Amino acid sequence: MQDSPEIAVLRLGHRPGRDERMTTHVGLTARALGADRVLLAQGAADRRTTIENVTDGFGGPFEVETTDEPNRVLCEWQARIVHLTMYGLPVQEVETEIRSQFEDGMDLLVVVGAEKVQWDVYEAADWNVAVTNQPHSEVASLAVFLDRLFEGDELDREWEDADRVVVPQAEGKRIEEQ
């Protein structure tokens, strides 16, 4: 096992014409809130460029990959799998167990769906986790889950090789070139 555990996010499915922004936001949220890489279904390959451009401009490290066999990724994953679904156990009931295994060096694959998720995903998961048992966005689930996993520490993350940075301020927008 490696010294620093990895968090990969697998975006299951992509509905062209419907999911472009949502798939992009899954990748950007994964990057911003502490994941190491995102794996996108082959149909979302054009979203890869957008996420890579943000990483190039605002820093990394963060990897974007595409796969035409997302179910194979699930089957071959060698560590723990967290499936975010509104049908799972409440995040507040399982976050300590998941965090403990992650802090002990166990890699995590966080699975978020685009369309109806097949039953084998539920069976492959070590944890089926619900941020809430109400309909909501997979981007919201991913954000809340990562924040719970890192206990807010991801919000102070330093970025390497950033060409530009957002300068926090009470009003207006300010980006500085590096």
What's the rounded overall pLDDT mean?
91
Strand order of the largest sheet: 3-2-1-5-4-6
Biggest sheet character: 6 strands, parallel
Work out the number of β strands. 8
User: Which topology does CATH recognise?
Assistant: Alpha/beta knot
What string gives the helices and strands in order?
Answer: EHEHEHEHEHEHEE
Structurally, how many domains make up the residues? 1
The CATH class is identified as: Alpha Beta
Count, helices: 6
- pLDDT under 50 segments (min length 5)? none
Based on CA atoms alone, the radius of gyration comes out at 16 Å
Separation of the first and last Cα atoms: 36 Å
What is the CATH architecture annotation? 3-Layer(aba) Sandwich
CATH superfamily (homologous) name? SPOUT methyltransferase, trefoil knot domain
Tell me about this structure.
- It is a single chain.
- The chain has 6 helices and 8 strands, in the order βαβαβαβαβαβαββ.
- The protein is of the alpha/beta class and 178 residues long.
- It has one domain: 3-Layer(aba) Sandwich (Alpha/beta knot), CATH 3.40.1280.10.
- The strands form 2 sheets. Strands 3-2-1-5-4-6 form a 6-stranded parallel β-sheet, with helices on both faces. A two-stranded antiparallel sheet has the order 7-8.
- Helix 4 links the parallel strand 4 and strand 5 (108-113).
- The longest helix is centred in the N-terminal third of the chain and has 14 residues, at 45-58.
